[in-house]
Amino acid sequence: MREYYFNCRKMAKIIDGKQVAAEVRLNLKNEVQEFIAAGNRAPQLTAILIGNDPASQTYVNNKMKAAQEIGINSCTKHLPSSISEDELLKIIDELNENQSVDAILVQLPVPDHINERKICNAVKYEKDVDGFNEINVGRLALDMETIVPCTPLGVRQLLKYYNIETKGKNAVVVGRSKNVSLPIAMMLHTDKSHHDRSMDATVTICHRYTPRDELKRYCQLADIIVTATGIPGIIQADMVKPGACVIDIGITRIPIEGTDKTKLVGDVDFEAVKDIAGFITPVPGGVGPMTVAMLMKTTVKIAKNLAFKKL
Question: What band does 4 get if pLDDT is binned at 50, 70 and 90?
Fold first, then answer.
């Protein structure tokens, strides 16, 4: 009977992050136009890019392009990798005090000689578009109004867009990064009595060192799996409950066998899992586009907060 079920069920519905992100960006464009028409200046986003890492440059360029498309003023401060921590802190402090700057983004990672946590905390929490300042992290943990990191915010938006029920469901978060996995876990278990963004799930956190048999056991119980380890194939078909929602945040570039080319893959064995899951995000084209869209959404939110002194 179980084999018959698998043979007859449909392939998972693909969660199209590109489509959802495009809709978010279009709505934001209209929102910005209305904000400006009401007598406010355009929201402003400043990114700090340190060094010449190609991936970081691409990420920042994509963010600046999205900002321009929506009507957000933006600029990038491109600094040498040799910059001292004190010099960087001074630049951040100047941006904090600059009333024409709404949102501040420090592209991570920073060079090894700079303390990443110190830099994240240096960005004024009201302007911290990434939500990495410890004040914003703490407010999130306490179910308070705050600035939420963009990738977790994108995951929540996708779940909401596709009407995926979270209340009373079992969710497994695979990964323990403080900027992605932990905020997702906190958001999934948020209590409705504390905040209207609640998701009310029962959450289990696993990671790359969770023994495979244990990871499998937890995932098989999960209605929702969110994975963000950067380990290709860590989530296999035998770990997924039929009909579960699988959100893949992991992204790794691997060689294509027999060629000199590469391709991007996620944490999930997509081809096998899509025949079991009820919903699944592709890589690329799933969570990735939502991260940039949510960055734009948060920039507009910050501009309004500062204009009306809400946060």
Answer: very low
